[in-house]
Amino acid sequence: MTTRTVDRTQELATFLRTRRERLDPRDFGLPRRRQSRRTPGLRREEVAELAGVSTDYIVRLEQARGLRPSVTVLEALARAMRLAPDERDYLFDLAQQRPRTADRPATTATASLSGLVDDLSPLPVLLLNHRYDILSWNAEMVRLLVDFDTLPPSERNLVRLCLLHPQISRSYPDREKVLRDGIANLRTAWAAHPDDPELNHLIVEFIADVEDFARLWADPEVRHQGRGRKVMHHPEVGVISLDFEMLVPMQNPDQRLLIFRAADDEGRAALERLRSR
User: Fold this and answer.
1) Which residues form the HTH cro/C1-type domain (predicted)?
2) Amino acid 100: pLDDT
């Protein structure tokens, strides 16, 4: 039986096309054409001219014809299409032109980091790998989300829980944004680890079985979201606004700490009530 994987060449083609189509010709001072534009954004020949490559090269890239652009070409394309830093990194990852992190992702928590998760109490903390598998957690995170010990190890994945766990998926008033952000982060992680079979399997499974995931995956957003704010509705203490930080240890770059803090006085009071329970 052949294991299905996400097609990196096709993803590169889709990413380049969608980024070209979102560009506004007026931002580039391009002359108006006599004929009307039948498609949004810049034409392929305009991107080719801005990047200093041939139109045929752009066509072949967007048709997923197996090209592997050089670093020089990728830099030129990133400048021509005015990619944001996260998008530029994603482009380099898709083309396999960025240094890789560890090939074997952590499946268990490093002892020192697991101890740090506990030491960061009373802040709710998770330790994750690049697949967003949950490796370690503290009591405060259990009270905030779910008792991870009650879940089979195969279900201890943050994206899976946000998609499919009844309690967690209902806890976000703006679930669409939470899912969109999470999938954009997962796409970025996949581009950095395209040969990780379990990550590929996870994405293929979600595309096939989870309608929301398939819909949002089709829109190639990419993002390294290291900090932000989430609003949750907790069944015991009501609405909580939380700021989060994602920290990557220098000696264990394949692991990351997700730390939550109350965003306001009401959030601090809500977390205190959870701790007292």
Assistant:
1) 41-88
2) 58
How many whole angstroms separate alpha carbon 240 and alpha carbon 257?
20
Is the domain of 150 the same as that of 84?
no
Report the SS3 class of residue 195.
coil
- pTM value is 0.76
Name the DSSP class of 238: E
The whole-angstrom separation of Cα 160 and Cα 178 is: 12
The verdict on residue 103 lying in a domain is no
139 and 80 share a domain?
Answer: no
- Residue 36, C-beta contacts closer than 8 angstroms, at least 6 positions apart: none
C-alpha pair distances (Å), 260 with each of 31, 53, 125, 173, 241: 50, 46, 6, 18, 10
CATH number at residue 34: 1.10.260.40
The token duo for 24 is 């506004």
Are 126 and 260 in the same domain?
yes
Strands of the 125-129 sheet, one edge to the other: 134-137, 125-129, 255-262, 238-247, 227-234
Q: Is the pLDDT of residue 30 over 80?
A: no
Q: What are 134-183's pLDDT values in tens digits?
A: 999 999 999 999 999 999 999 999 999 999 999 998 899 999 999 999 99
C-beta of residue 110 within 8 angstroms of C-beta of residue 255:
yes
Domain ranges, residue 140: 111-276
Determine the pLDDT at residue 71.
Answer: 92
CA distance 143 to 136: 14
CB atoms within 10 A of CB 203: 23
> What single string gives the DSSP state of each residue in 6-58?
--HHHHHHHHHHHHHHT--GGGGTPPPPSSPPSSSS--HHHHHHHHTS-HHHH
Q: Where are the alpha helices (DSSP H) in 69-110?
A: 71-80, 85-94
Residues 90 and 118 in one domain: no
